[in-house]
Automatic annotation (TrEMBL):
Protein name (Swiss-Prot/TrEMBL): Heme exporter protein A
Superkingdom of origin organism: Bacteria
Molecular function per GO: ATP binding; ATP hydrolysis activity; transmembrane transporter activity
Protein's organism: Shimia haliotis
Keywords per UniProt: ATP-binding, Cytochrome c-type biogenesis, Membrane, Nucleotide-binding, Translocase, Transport
Amino acid sequence: MTLTVSDLIVARGGIAVLEGVSFTLKSGRALVIRGPNGIGKTTMLRTIAGLQPPMAGKVDAPEESFAYAAHSDGLKSMLSVEENLRFWASVFGQSDIDGAVQAFDLEDLLPRLAGALSAGQKRRLGLARLLVTGRSIWILDEPTVSLDTQSVARFADAVRAHLAAGGSALIATHIDLGLEGDVLDVGPFKATGHHADPAGFDESFL
Ligand SMILES: Nc1ncnc2c1ncn2[C@@H]1O[C@H](COP(=O)(O)OP(=O)(O)OP(=O)(O)O)[C@@H](O)[C@H]1O
């Protein structure tokens, strides 16, 4: 499954933040997105994942191939860790949660309410969710925030296994995950201010 992004312009609050973004991400590959705070990495990832419309350009990928994970992981705080994983697995038509539990060392946490987890534990659960989606293109926004060293290593292993199984990953991160992969610095795509959409009030961030 190949993701092709062509001449993409992404906007926040109706104002272009990145323009002319083009790249291809093939099966089995990771692409790390780099750039300073506020340049538009989150906006770009949300646009590619289909959570907000592009101002211009195209995102081509097979339908229903994306799994997106960011800060608000959509955890159901009143459900247990196990119930959360089973819920997502059923949403995505899967039934097996064991691989996800093992990959993120969640065994001991299975009966705990998601809302009562620490920040790092919540993040591990949010990342474990990726594994139960069965989706092939992972779009990850700062996935390692709050993770301890061991959990970062586990996460990197999970990404490696995903790539080895033919998946791919687009990852905005400031840290070096030690993954073999390509790096895209979005600095050169900073918008020049020519693209503004006066009607483009950006409700997706409310
Ligand atoms: N609700 C909003 N409405 C309009 N503009 C916003 C809104 N929230 C953030 N912005 C601006 O949009 C731009 C892009 O933000 P974005 O979160 O995509 O950057 P980022 O590269 O992911 O940053 P970071 O590395 O800090 O996470 C920034 O200049 C930011 O200040």
